[in-house]
Amino acid sequence: MDWMKKISTDRMLVGLVSLIAVGMSFIYLGKGPADPEQSVQTKSALTAPANPSTKIGVLEKELESKLQTNILMMEGVGRVQVSVNFLTGLKNEYVRNNNVTKRTNKETDKVGGTRETTEITENNQVVMPSGSSQPVIAMEDRPEIGGVLVIAEGARDPKVREGIHTAVQTLLNIPSARITVVPMGGTS
């Protein structure tokens, strides 16, 4: 009978820990970022599928096209297909209107004692042009490249494959491990 109490106590403990973990995850997931601009960026990064109708999709297609054009000009490459994947979304820094107001009050009571209080008010608002719902962007960073896949007819030749790999690494300034070059299959 003692072992049954131990099993039921262990089950209750596991259930309680599981319930706490689920509750904590709801609390954590329910909280949004403190910075509203960060919230907008996170949502756009999460909901931006890699298709040409989004800014990220357009950037990916432009980069793929640029790489493909350059690789096609290399000797021995043949037909080429390039795919680019971004790790992050666009990063925007917005223009802000920073105002600091400082007000000091001196009060003297009937007995002759004085009291001085200082009130500081800071205002750090994002600048919105009149009639627009979009804030003014001070800087826009391109997303970080997660990986590049190059499929080329000439990649069976190790010299061509290495040349493509080096060209992509040089053009994008990314680590070698994020680039894969493979031979094109199928019929010519």
UniProtKB/TrEMBL annotation:
Transmembrane stretches, start-end: 12-30
Keywords linked to the UniProt accession: Membrane, Transmembrane, Transmembrane helix
Record-given protein name: Stage III sporulation protein AG
Organism: Desulfosporosinus lacus DSM 15449
